[in-house]
Amino acid sequence: MAYSREEVHLENPRPSVVHVVDDDEAVRDSLRALLESYGFEVRDYASAREFLVGMPLQPRGCVLLDLHMPGMSGLELLDALHARGSKLPVIAVTGRSDAALKERVARAGALLLLDKPVGDDTLLSSLASALSLAECRGC
To answer: Considering the domain boundaries, does residue 122 fall inside one?
Structure first.
């Protein structure tokens, strides 16, 4: 099922924010191009630590998070967000998934775990779910 630009937007006067946290610049650039073409506001970060430092006091939107990064991992970022009491919905993405990782990610509070490569339709429907949850939580 292909999504139109109108279908992925919530009824909100400002664009939905997607925080992309991935150490791969090409992935960040590709995601930015795709998501901006659908009208999302994209903020990207090259590391988990960069996201924590640059995170606004009252962030809005959702996080699209690569789990396997050098330095602070995506799992460690999930733990840090949980410790801070963050309400931001997180969609975790990995190229190396197994049952133990899926359980760990769920316990850490991620909304979803997607396996790479992620198709556009899967990504857009996952973001729509996360952003609906964010709106309910006041993010």
So the answer is: yes
What is residue 64's three-state secondary structure? strand
Domain range enclosing 32: 16-137
> What's residue 10's pLDDT?
43
- Can you name the residues that pair with 99 across neighbouring β-strands? none
Phi, psi of 91 (to 5 degrees): -105, 115
Which secondary-structure segment (H or E) carries 65?
strand 62-66
Query: Side chain identity at 16, as an amino acid letter?
Result: S
Contact 78, 48 (CB under 8 A): no
Structural contact between residues 48 and 75, judged by C-beta atoms closer than 8 angstroms:
no
Residue type, 127: L
Average pLDDT score over residue span 121-135? 94
Q: What is the distance between the alpha carbons of residues 7 and 70, in angstroms, rounded to a whole number?
A: 35
